[in-house]
Amino acid sequence: MKVTLLGAGHIGATTARLLHDSGDYDVLLVDRDAKSLAAAKTSGIATAIMDTSDAKSLHAVLESRDAVVNALPYHMAIPVAQAAKNAGVHYFDLTEDVEATKAIKRLAVDASTAFMPQCGLAPGFISIAAYALSQGFDQIQDIKMRVGAIPEFPSNALKYNLTWSVEGLINEYCRPCDAIRDGQLKEIQPLEGLERFSIDGVEYEAFNTSGGLGTLCETLAGKVRNLDYKSVRYPGHCVLMKFLLEDLAMGTQQEKLKEILRAAIPTTLQDLVLVFVTVSGWRKGEFVQETFSRKIFASQVGGKTTTAIQIATASGICTALDLFREKQLPQAGFIPQEYIGLDDFLQNRFGQAYNGTVPVRGAADATDLLTRLTHKDSSTVKTNRVVSDLALTPTC
């Protein structure tokens, strides 16, 4: 399958490596920054330097390819999706932006190709897990989706490091959030709904952020009483972000805030990803609850650290593309994440990064890479420290 991958940042480069090493994808990695492309080029991945905001150049790099994977900032989602439709190629992205997804869904209405946005962690995998759990109930009461991409060793007042896109971070902190309350679709405010809990003895907080639900509100409309998504951080983060965005009015000066964060908050390779979903409702007349949980850590791969957010996000979009290539998903129109079965995801060679077990499957490089991502000793099938279940305890 011929794939053009736009954006050679941390997530884009990891995605390109996984697809290329699988042997089933002809990957062309495109970015405007030659330095970002250097490592991929030395790994044998085809690269091209291009201004991705130029419509003519974008069309040229997409035509004659089978699909485009968009790993650019969220504001490029709509123009790239439009270019994909014009060029007649399938479209996949990682956007958390709600309005962009709505626009892409409109583009897909009469398209002969497929459009599948929000293929990362949240939105993405979290919707797949939540939808799968919800199908085991006769009547659904509550669905709570919580995801955190955070430093393993917080050391500043925000208790945060830059582990992924600053643009995406600010966007999810500033845009309205979808939710279902008492059976009704609602728009609720970001940075509200603060709650605290502990996992494995460590205290965390969670609060409303935009985009993490994907299309799940629409899919489960009329079938669930309460549904919400919150981002997980260490205690104290939310109140400081509200101070910056509201009291200091940085929400109206987002470009300046991004500059401040990039200059003041260091990146880290020592991160972790928390994923947990709780669904409660009625089954055979009994009120019950089920939980799905994962904890993913950064890992050494070939002497180089691959972060937890890289593992989680790149594995998500690679799995979606792989299932599409295998024709396990619709081949045209808009494809929500919840069209992917949880078992299908976790059994996929890329999705096994979430599963914690990687069976031996011959000598495919992609399988070997994911083995090393999820295990210190690739000869075992038991999870080590990179993927583990969580023990969740509310904090009063």
Cα end-to-end separation: 52 Å
Strand order of the largest sheet: 18-14-13-7-12-11-10-19
Question: What does the main sheet amount to?
Answer: 8 strands, mixed
The helical percent reads 25-40%
What's the mean pLDDT score?
A: 89
Radius of gyration: 20 Å
Number of strands: 19
Number of DSSP helices?
13
Strand content is 25-35%
What class do helices, strands and sheet pairing give? Answer: alpha/beta
Which shape, going by the Cα principal axes? globular
Low-confidence stretches: 357-386
Would you give an account of this structure?
This protein has 396 residues and is an alpha/beta fold. The protein has 13 helices and 19 strands. The strands form four sheets. An eight-stranded mixed β-sheet has the order 18-14-13-7-12-11-10-19, covered by helices on one side. Strands 3-2-1-4-5-6-17 form a seven-stranded parallel β-sheet, with helices on both faces. It has a two-stranded antiparallel ribbon with strand order 8-9. β4 (67-70), α4 (77-87) and β5 (90-93) form a beta-alpha-beta unit. α1 crosses α11 (308-325). It starts with a strand and ends with a strand.
